[in-house]
Amino acid sequence: MARRSFVRTAVMCLLALLAASGADPARAATLVLNDVDPPGTGFDDPTPVAATSGNPGTTLGEQRRIVFQFAADLWGSLLESPTDIVVQASFRPLPCSTGSALLASSGAVRVLADFPGAAFSGTWYPPALANKLAGQDLTPGPFDPGLLASPFNDDIYVTINVALDDDPACLGGAGWYYGLDHQAGMAVDLLNVMVHEMAHGLGFANFVDEATGAEPSGLPDVYSRYTLDTVTGRHWHEMTDAERVASARRAGRVVWDGAHVRAQAPHVLGPRPVLDVMPPAAVAGSYEVTVATFGAAPGEPGIAGELVLANDGTGTTSDACEPLLGNYTGTIVVSDRGSCTFATKAARAQAAGALGVVVVNNDPIGLPSMTGQDSSITIPAVGLSLADGQALKAALPGLDGMIGVDVAKLAGTDVNGHLRLLADADRFAYGVKDSLPLAAHVR
After folding, report:
1. pLDDT tens digit string along 72-86?
2. How many Cα atoms within 13 Å fall on the side-chain side of residue 408?
3. Contact between 349 and 310 (Cβ < 8 Å)
4. What gap in Å lies between CA 118 and CA 307, rounded to an integer?
5. For residues 410 and 9, what is the distance between their CA atoms, to the nearest angstrom?
6. What is the pTM assigned to this prediction?
7. Please, which residues have CB within 8 angstroms of residue 254's CB and are 6 or more apart in sequence?
């Protein structure tokens, strides 16, 4: 599904789990910070900074706390919990290079099963959800003394990559954006990432080791009970380890199977973004695409033009990483993924006069996650699967296309209206893998 819909969909799934339990409402949830950074770092970094949009903090640490609290309050306004939800959070170095980064890692601090109020027996729950269903704090006690440190009383952990601020080579020096208005420009919006990571810890994640398919201590988790593989017709808790491994790489065929979410989807999700290829070409048809986090959103009517393969004359000439050669005015540029950012490809196409850009995935699984920031890009930029892209490129030149939407279908859903889950090791944030816990600390 489109990245912009993730948080809203996470909310629907979390609320659906609670609705299915039949538990009585308690009180608005309060998410509180357990700062596990070393003194003088992270949330306590004393570096002076200027106030930014909606964030009046005067030090780097203070601005980070304000973003955290804003994200916590957003979730708290939507959820109910009889106990505080403790989020142990820190800013620490995580993998980062010029072109890619692990922005953050997150998850539940531990998992719990067979507590009073559990909707399913023999099933793991994240502590925030378990506490809600039980009506009490199942792991009482003081804050944990460190990141994922015993006695594991906290509920959620979130680790944010400090390298975006500290390492000039990380993502080309893009840095974190600490404003609260989502006007990040070329920087990375910390508020978006923080809300996203909290969602994982609240319960929008399974506890399966997707490399082996193994469940913690041989028990399924509540998320897996609603995870349906439409190829096999079985939920993840009904599968063998090997079947879960295969399903985890079945992009587009793994869905959320919950009646509450399916009923609410039309009120949350917009029409499906598509690339329509015009007849009489043999490859004519409507192709599903992902939408970039920058540029214009596809709409109705769409943007139409001749589909033209990018040529920048350097290296892989179709990757659009250098200025394009020739005149692309009024066309839709088709480029290959790799070697530079999605925003760079779109900027090259726009500078050459194109009306839009289509980026063909270089991974055989799924659609490319078209993430990045560039406020100067005004054309629509979409991503196409490797198989579809190869078919289109083989038919070039001579194709006309249109980037638009299919109003008869919802973005991120299958033919039966199920919300599809991102397969292949949970590729969510900005094209890199979120590090989810393998639930080593069970109770």
Report:
1. 999 999 999 999 999
2. 2
3. yes
4. 54
5. 13
6. 0.80
7. 227, 228, 229, 230, 247, 248, 420, 421, 423
**DSSP string for 384-425:** E-HHHHHHHHHH-SSEEEEEEEEEEEETTB-TTSPEEPP-TT
Task: Enter the tokens of residue 247.
Answer: 């399903």
Cβ(14)–Cβ(29) below 8 Å: no
Decide if 292 contacts 382 (C-beta within 8 A).
yes
Task: Provide the residue type at 400 as one letter.
Answer: D
Taking the C-alpha atoms of residue 158 and residue 179, their distance in angstroms, rounded to an integer, is 19
DSSP per-residue codes, 266-296: HHH--EEEEEEEPTTSTT-EEEE-EE-SSSP
Q: Which residue has the higher pLDDT, 365 or 221?
A: 221
Residues 392, 394, 395, 399, CA torsion sign: positive
Side by side, the strands of the sheet bearing 31-35 are: 31-35, 85-92, 156-161, 104-108
Residue 125: pLDDT band with limits 50, 70, 90: very high
Using DSSP's 3-state secondary structure scheme, residue 173 falls into: helix
Q: Output the six-digit token pair for 70.
A: 């804003």
Name the nearest CA neighbour of 173 among 432, 373, 381.
Answer: 373
The b-or-e profile of 227-243 (16+ CB within 10 A means b, else e) is: bbbbeeebbbbebeeee
Instruction: Indicate if the alpha-carbon torsion angle 117, 120, 125, 129 is positive or negative.
Output: negative
Using one digit for the tens of pLDDT, what is the confidence trace for 308-339?
999 999 999 999 999 999 999 999 999 999 98
Nearest residue to 124 (alpha-carbon basis) of 12, 7, 288, 236: 236
Fold observed for domain 271-409:
Glucose Oxidase; domain 1 (3.50.30)
Domain ranges of the chain: 3-264+419-431, 271-409
Query: For residues 300 and 68, what is the distance between their CA atoms, to the nearest angstrom?
Result: 37
Contacts for 50 with CB less than 8 Å, ≥ 6 apart:
none
Q: Is 423 left (phi over 0), alpha (psi -120 to 50) or beta?
A: beta
Confirm if 25 and 274 have CB atoms less than 8 A apart: no
